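can u pls check wat happens w/ magnesium ion
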Amino acid sequence: MMTRNEIANNIAYKAYIIRKTALDMGYAAGEHGAHFGSTLSIAEIMATLFFGIMHYDPKHTDDPNRDRFVLSKGHGSLALYITLSEAGYIDKEILKTFETKDSILPGHPSLHPELGIEYATGSLGHGLSLGAGAALAAKWDRLSYMTYVLCGDGECNEGSIWEAAMLASKEHLDNLVAIIDCNRMQSDGFVKDICEYGDMAAKWRAFGWNVKEVNGHDPLELYNALGKNNHAAGKPLAIIAHTVKGKGVTLFENNPKTHHYRIKKDEYEAALDELERDEKNRRSNYEG
Ligand SMILES: [Mg+2]
């Protein structure tokens, strides 16, 4: 059995793979560009869910007890595709087709249950309702799976998020977890300049949810917060993950001009160097 430190190390490594592969795929997408910032923001969250928390088997995609995942912020699709590839659902050759004509991997995820993509998302504000439905179905069918929904903080401008939050609380969906990627930015700029939300944790508490706040780039904090111990009976769980949009690549960090971006060759090479250098440092610290 792996120790917590070994699990955290594996999550950090997978997050590095997500970032590095996202750069490769986004660069290959050329003139189409890609949502780099949003993808880099959620690398540790995705890695923690799929390589530390969730129960699934890519060989049995119709297992009724598989945990469900909804990427409500669908523009983070690069992170989803790469994670599902690392998890054994999507062949690496298929990853190379990202955003090409007739590809099954467009900029926003479309429905492909056989690849582990069970929800088409990207039209913002819908994912939590889908997740609440899945969690409610589990209660009705007496199934033990958990449902995880990853939302953006800008996405929480959508009223439908709060309708679903209210329903989940009313239905006592303690098998539902919402993770809010609080990078303080949204597609058109900084949250504070567009629709400031103030205390995100207080809002979810007011809607009757159990709430945990974490550093969304710290694998151990994420792993501990998502662990079973934090699931209060009768209440859904919201994880407020404080993150940096574009995390890990200076060009993208907190840069409103790069929400959707066509990366140039020299920028791509510099970004790869930066990621590789940081991963090397992280590994040597871990190995002591
Ligand atoms: Mg955001």
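The first strand starts at residue 68 and ends at 71.
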